[in-house]
């Protein structure tokens, strides 16, 4: 009986891991023209992590870092050639010029914190 409970618990943990890393998709936050989106950096995630922006719109992303881990100290937008340091408990604003349609990833230097900017 104990072995059955352990197996069921193990399968539940595996299902949770599969859901969290491969199936779960956070909702998009919609940005409007000349909008500023605040992104919290804490507990191992960017919140929100998916942002939709209309094409040819300038936008400001305000990162607020609460997480003191070394991985959280940078945000990188590889396709945009942006790499910025994020101070703890202070806002860091990154202004983005008008972008072409497409998806632009952003992440920490170890790619543990991940986000996506979707330009439509």
UniProtKB/TrEMBL annotation:
Q: Where do the EfeO-type cupredoxin-like domain residues begin and end?
A: 14-118
Which superkingdom, per the lineage? Answer: Bacteria
* Entry keyword set: Membrane, Transmembrane, Transmembrane helix
Matches recorded under Pfam families: Cupredoxin_1
Name the residues that span the membrane.
6-24
Keyword Transmembrane helix present in the record's keywords: the answer is: yes
Kindly provide the name given to this protein in its UniProt entry: Plastocyanin domain-containing protein
Query: Which species?
Result: Kangiella koreensis (strain DSM 16069 / JCM 12317 / KCTC 12182 / SW-125)
């Amino acid at each position: 009986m104990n072995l059955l409970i352990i197996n069921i618990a193990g399968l539940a943990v595996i299902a949770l891991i599969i859901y969290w890393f491969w199936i779960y998709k956070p909702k998009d936050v919609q940005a409007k023209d000349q909008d500023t989106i605040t992104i919290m950096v804490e507990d191992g995630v960017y919140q929100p992590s998916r942002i939709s922006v209309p094409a040819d719109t300038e936008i400001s992303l305000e990162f607020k870092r609460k997480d003191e881990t070394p991985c959280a100290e940078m945000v990188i937008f590889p396709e945009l050639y942006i790499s910025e340091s994020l101070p703890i408990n202070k806002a860091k604003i990154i202004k983005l010029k008008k972008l072409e349609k497409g998806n632009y990833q952003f992440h920490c230097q170890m790619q543990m914190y991940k986000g996506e900017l979707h330009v439509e």
